[in-house]
Amino acid sequence: TINNTQFVEYNNDDEIFEKQIFQLAQYALKYAKVLMGFKSPKYANRCMSKLIFQKRLKEMLGKWNGPIFDYYNAAMIKFLLGELNSGRRLIEKLNSLKLESPFKEWAEHSYSEFCDDELTAEQARNKVCSMVNRQRNYFKQKGAFRKMPDINFL
Predict the structure, then answer these.
(1) Which of 11-15's residues contact partners 24+ apart within 8 Å by CB, and which partners?
(2) Which of 44, 78, 92, 106 satisfies CB 3.0 to 4.6 Å to 87 for a cystine?
(3) CA gap 133, 153 in Å, rounded
(4) Is 92 exposed, middle or buried (0-12, 13-18, 19+ CB in 10 A)?
């Protein structure tokens, strides 16, 4: 969005409208390129690591810490990359947050799934891949998603 807008209104001035539409299209292209980078777990890991660092800094400063799902998503990426201990630390952080139902139960379930001492890095990766595939299969049942190309990178 440009200036928090996703819409450009036409006000009978072709030159201004063309300029605003071009800016919006340029921004959309730039944003799409960023999103396309997330098909690489290594790229996603870099982005999420930066985000988690910023969240921890804000937490130390006593400021709002943002969405709890960031910890979970970052952990899943770590597990995909085989970084078991890093992923566990993120799940432990998620589980330590003061959450209300149903998020508390979700965090506890995630903790029990991924912080078992017997779990190996390969098993954690396989769990994440299985969860991703279940979601993909669910969405493939929806008409709009059936039309999308089936590109798997896991």
Answers:
(1) none
(2) 78
(3) 11
(4) middle
Q: Which residues pair with 5 in a beta bridge?
A: 2
Domain ranges of the chain: 1-37, 39-146
Tokens matching residue 26: 């340029």
Cβ burial, residue 3 (10 Å; 0-12/13-18/19+):
exposed
The most distant pair of C-alpha atoms in the chain lies apart, rounded to whole Å, by 67
pLDDT digits (tens, 9 = 90+) for 17-71: 999 888 888 888 887 887 777 778 888 888 888 888 888 788 777 776 667 888 8
Q: How far apart are CA 17 and CA 59, in angstroms?
A: 43
